[in-house]
Amino acid sequence: MADKPGRFDHWGVGLIHTFPNEGSARGKVVIQPGDIIILPYCRYVVDPIHLDIEDGHVVSIEGGLDATLMREWLKDGEEFEGDRDPYALSHLGWGLNPQCRWDSIALFGDAPERSRAASRCFPGNFLFSTGPNSQGGGKRTTRGHYDVPMRDCTIEIDGQIVVKDGNLTDPRMIVPRERR
Ligand SMILES: [Fe+2]
Predict the structure, then answer these.
(1) pTM value?
(2) Which residues surround ligand 1, an ion (CB under 5 A)?
(3) How remote is the CA of residue 90 from the centroid of ligand 1, in Å?
(4) If 0-12 CB within 10 Å is exposed, 13-18 middle and 19+ buried, where does residue 85 land?
């Protein structure tokens, strides 16, 4: 939801994100055991996935079972031969919500309606994703959509570290968890 066209605001969930400029993302991503494939599987990763990213797209997915799951899902999202949309980088950001728990799937099970918000928004996770960007003002509407909250990452923006080894650095972003 948003009050202006061309963007969406994740109000109330506790998630900051943005979309990379088209074609600009590049580098390597290693998804580690304990990171979560919250979309589509609601599953903890069990073995590392090595991704190479060039010109805004994932160009290589290597590893074991989790790499195979990712390759197959994104391949299944292709709508025509050579469709690269499922491999495009989508929203990137980090979680802030102290009531969201990394271990929510272990505690409460993997029902999507229960775990998806909690697992995307736990404080200090780096939320990596591929696929559609229509909610960020772009034109991609692909079904090949992967969302991966990652632990223990460091996030730097314009020379400023905002998350260090999975921990929020600015006290203004840190809210104590309410224990019930
Ligand atoms: Fe997503």
Answers:
(1) 0.91
(2) 129, 147
(3) 7
(4) buried
